[in-house]
Request: fold
Amino acid sequence: MAPRFCGTNLRPHVGRGRAALAAGLVLAATLARAEPAREAIVTAQLGGVVEVVDLAAGKVLRSIPVDGAPAGIALSPDRKRAYVTRPEGHGLAVLDLDAGRVVAEVPLPGGPLGVAADPKGGTVYVADWYGHRLFVLTERDGTLVSDGEIAVGASPSGIAVSPDGATLYVANREADTVSVVDAKARAETKTIPVGQHPFGITLDAAAGRAYTANVTSDDVSVIDLAAGREISRIPTGRRPYVIALSAGRGFVTDQYAGSVTAFDLATLKPIADIDVGDHPEGIAADADGQLYVANWGDNTLSVLDARSLKVLKTIPTGNGPRAFGDFLR
Amino acid sequence: MKKITLALAATAALVAATAQAHGPTRRKISESIEINAPADKVWAVIGDVKNADWIQNVTKTEVTGDVPNKFKRTLTLKNGDQIQETSNKFKPDEKLFSYYIDKVDVKDLPANDYSASITVEPAGDAKSKVEWKAAFYRGYMNNDPPPELNDEASEKGVGDWIKASLANLKTKVEKGS
Reply:
């Protein structure tokens, strides 16, 4: 089965380790359902905390104070560490999720917001939404250190990384473009025009596509990666923000509409609008066909079923949950 | 020597300003009020979107488009300025009205990208509770806001306007009951 990718970057299910991989191989013959996500790691921006949410129990397990208005999130390939941007603290916090504490802080200039981790490990990319650049952070001696910049378009927001770590795709909010970046050369190789103010970007590497949520044109741009161009637009609700993929469908949060628009990945047509909470922002899918949506206005996490398109559960969170990025493990 | 001191002082001031500079984070406000009237009666006033005279400082309401499905509303204020709004959700069954502001002068309302929802629910014997939730960025969208448009001042400005509007609503409904 092809891996499913979601959030603003890749979520490869390699984090469960060899045991899970072995179990997966054993169970593959019986077409067993994939394992659901156990935890959501939620940045509660106005509450100044990062919360570890137990998805089965439907409650917050741990609340980790992170100042500087925590917003963007990425997880290490082993899913043990979270990289959280602090746009008002100017930097990135590195969290040990099992220990429930901040283990390192990397100061950064500008407005660090979007963040993605190389699925192969060792590198984290942070977008400066006040600038035209990504910050490259490299793992050294168990921590992250600043290691240069990559020039991209204006107001880079969401970042997606290819499974091999070789290519970055960056949504440039003010430029209305996506930058394709050669990670090794640290250089933009192509600029793809999309809709107005693309914010979240999600890669479907297996299908050779990427999707951007265009905040002010109220649509999703569909990009053919091989052709390097936009091939379609899908209308959404007001103020689309982030896209997740599951069960052959795309799901985009509509901030003003308080809904998630589901669309068909084959026909590229909308299927339904699903009411969630107030001002939904971050969204991610697990391997079991469930989607998790951070509702900034309501302080909740909605759990949706990708097939029935129903809300299964609503979990309370801290104030102003955003979870912009890869936040399931 | 003096020049050097000044230059140093300027550099120090610049560093301090840069250290404090940060990008706006969207704020939220939730205000509610209890009204001594049944929810239906309160909704009748809120749901009459063609007359927003209970909203603080509003002297005239003009509506265009398809009421109640999708419409635009222009509120004229006492000082002659206008607030331009677009409806988002209008659900009489849930007693919910949400909308966003397309255009407002930050002198009248210190907010950018403002969106809000207003709901009514029963609160016991012939009483109801109105909740007004607003989300917005501060009046100044870049680094180093002037004091009157920073996060705190914007929250206070929007909050005071909502509180005054809800008080007006309570007066209007209770007087009419």
